[in-house]
C-alpha cells in the first residue's frame, strides 16, 4: 500500500508539472519567461496543508475542545473545517472553537494561540461591499481617513499599512500583493469580498511563517471553492447575488459549480460586475469653485471580476487544483484617490487590475503521520495605469506594474517523544518580483532611478509545537532564514543580505478553559530598491538622493495575555469567550524619509531628501475581545490601544492612534431571521505633535471622539429548503452609519475633507438553484 501511495504521489506531481508547463507556455506572451522557468520546480514545491489538521480539534459533550485522532481528510472538508464555525443562522453559531492557521502554519484554537489574531467571517464580509471596510471593527486595525473610493482605502495594522510599503503582508490564496503599487495614489487589496471564505488578521511581528514584511502583521484572505456556491444537498447548481447601496453602489455576481459524487472533479466559474458613483460624505466639508457647499467625492468606478477553478481528486488522498483570478476596475477619479475629493479641470481616467494564476497539489495520506504535503506555484500581475489629456493637448500618463512568480514548499509532521506530542511545520518559499513604472508628461519620459527593479526572496522555516502535561502546556518554537536580493536593472545596482527570525511562544491551561499566553518574536523588512536607489525630482516635495547603506528594519516584540472560555456559565448551552493581549515591541533601524543637505536647494528649487534608518521606535498597547452566545442571542465587544513613539524625538510615528471600542449584538427572534447592531467608538486621541505647519499656516490634528452605528437584518424564508426564489434564498438589509455621523482618522487635521462616508442603506439578495 505504501508503494502504491508513493507511486500515486509521483504520478500526481508529474501531472502537476505537465499541467503547469502547458499553462506557462500559453501565458508566455503575457507573463514573460519567468513562469516557464518555474514549471519544473513544482517537482519540489510542497507546502504545509494547515487545513488538513483543522478537524483534529473536536468538541466533547461539555463543549470543550479536545484532541482527537488525526482523520483522513478530504480536501474540501478540510477547507470547511478551517472555518471552525457553522453556517449562518445556525442555532449553534459561536459554540465551536474558532481556528487560526496563519499564525503558525498549524491550526490552533484562537483562544489558546499565544498572540493576537482575529477572523472576519463570511457574514461580516457581507455587511459591506469591500474587505477593508469589513475590518473596521477588528481590534488593532484602523481604517478610514480616505475619500471612500474602492481604489483608495486607508488601513493600518499595529501602526503600519497605507504608505508603509511592505510592512504588512497581504495575501490572497497564498499570493502576496502590494496595496499601493509603489505610487501611493491608490490603496486597494484588489479582493472580491463575495469570493472570500474568510479573512485572518494576525497582528504583530510575523516573519517566521511568511518572510520579510510582517512588522505590522499579516492579512490572509482565503478564496471559496465550488462547494461554497452549491445549493444545500446538491452536486451541481448556480448561485447569484444582487446588492444595492443608496450611496451610489450596486453589484451582482453569478456562479456555477459542479462537484459530482461519482466523479473525481470539481469545477467553479464566477463572474461579477459592480458600479460605484459619486460618494456622499457624512457632512459638508468645503465649497466648490462657485462657492457652493459640497458633501461628495467625485467618482466613477466600474468593477469586473472573473474567477475559474478546477480540481481533480487523483486518489483518495490527492488533489490537484488550478485557479485563475481576474480583477479589474475602470475609473474616472482624481490624481490621488485617497485624499483628493473633486476632479478639477482634468479628471483622471485609469485602470486598476490584478490577475493571479495558482496551481496547488495536495497529498494527505491518512496513515502517514510524517507526511501532509501541498505543492503550490503561482504567477501574479498587477497594474494601475492612469492619466489625462487637457484641452490644450498637454497631459500625463503614469503606469505602475507589479509582477510576481513564486513557489512554496513545506510539510506537516506529527510525532511523539515519550509523553510529549509534537507537530512540526517546515518548508521553504521563493518569490521573484518585478516592479516597473512609466511616467510621461507631455510625451517626455521621466526616470525614477529605481525602476525597473527585481526582488528575489528565498526563505527556509521550521516551527515545532509540543504538548505536555496531557495537553495543558503547549510550547511553540520556530525560526526562519531569509536570503533576499534587490536589483535595479538600468544601473546594475544590487542590494543583498540575509536575516534569521526566531519565535518562542507558550500557552498554559491553568484551569479548565483558562489559558495564560506568552509570545516573543522577531520580524524584519528589507529596504526596497526605491529607498536605496531613488534619485531625482520624483515628486514635487523633494529632490531625492540615493542611500545604498540602509540596513533592514527589525522588530522584537513580546506579547503577554490570557483567555477564558466558559460553557454553561448562565444557562445550558451558552458560551463565554474572552481574550486579552498586551504587546510591547521595539523597532530598530526603521526607514523613513528625511531632509538632507539643509540650506541647499535642488535644481527644481526644492529641498534634498533621502531615506535613513532612525535609531529606535517603541510601540505598546492592548487588544481585547470577548463574546457571549446563548441560543438566539449573541453579544461581542473589543477594545484596542496603540502608542508608537520615535524614541529619538518622543513623538508619535507615523501618526497618532485613537483608542477604539467596538460593540456588536444580534438576536434571532425566529428561525431564519437575525437582527444585528454594531457600534464602533473612537476615543479622543492625544496627538503628539499636536499640529503641523504648511505654507506658514498651522493645522491641528484631530482632537475629537467619534461613534458610528450600523444595523442589519438577515432573513432566510426557507433556511433548510427551496422556495419560489431558489434554495438557500436570503435577504440582507441594513444601514451603515445609521445616524449619518462623521468619523475622522486620528492621522488627519481637523480641517480635512475626509470626514467619512454618509448614511448608506443597502439591500442584498442572494440565492442558489
TrEMBL record:
It comes from the Bacteria. GO terms for molecular function: heme transmembrane transporter activity; siderophore uptake transmembrane transporter activity. Residues 303-738 form the TonB-dependent receptor-like beta-barrel domain. InterPro entries: Beta-barrel_TonB, Beta-barrel_TonB_sf, Plug_dom, Plug_dom_sf, TonB-dep_rcpt-like, TonB_haem/Hb_rcpt, TonB_rcpt_CS. One of its GO terms (biological process) is siderophore transmembrane transport. It is found in: Cell outer membrane. SUPFAM superfamilies: Porins. A motif (TonB C-terminal box) lies at residues 752-769. Belongs to the TonB-dependent receptor family. This is TonB-dependent receptor. It comes from Allofranklinella schreckenbergeri. The lineage of its organism: Bacteria, Pseudomonadati, Pseudomonadota, Betaproteobacteria, Burkholderiales.
